[in-house]
Amino acid sequence: xxxxxxxxxxxxxxxxxxxxxxxxxxxxxxxxxxxxxxxxxxxxxxxxxxxxxxxxxxxxxxxxxxxxxxxxxxxxxxxxxxxxxxxxxxxxxxxxxxxxxxxxxxxxxxxxxxxxxxxxxxxxxxxxxxxxxxxxxxxxxxxxxxxxx
Length: 149
Description:
Layout (H helix, E strand, L loop, with lengths): L1 H21 L20 E3 L8 E4 L2 E10 L3 E9 L8 H5 L2 E2 L2 E2 L2 E3 L9 E9 L6 E6 L2 E5 L5
Antiparallel strand pairs: 1-3, 2-3, 3-4, 4-8, 5-6, 5-9, 7-8, 9-10
């Protein structure tokens, strides 16, 4: 019985998360939050809707899909796509920086074959400013300025 409940809770959470990920903020109904309500310990900051949330160079496209704040960390989720380079190489994410600080850890929630279409979640020391810098191949550097606009 408990396993069924947990499974249903997981499905409901997945539906809710998918809606938040795939529907832009402007498409959802806006509601005002009273100023007396305190912010939760974990907050999600959507990347700015400007061109800086998605960039393309030399056939590689990188999209910042979410930026989440916890008490001591900032988690950045990326989607990387191309048809030339293996984007699943650990060194790409070990050398990435946010506000000049290297990533603490990273994980691949999706195990796509070939490394040409990669989803990655990177964890950094907490920050609310600065640029995300990532180099997926020699001589190719992506810089995402101020993801909190």
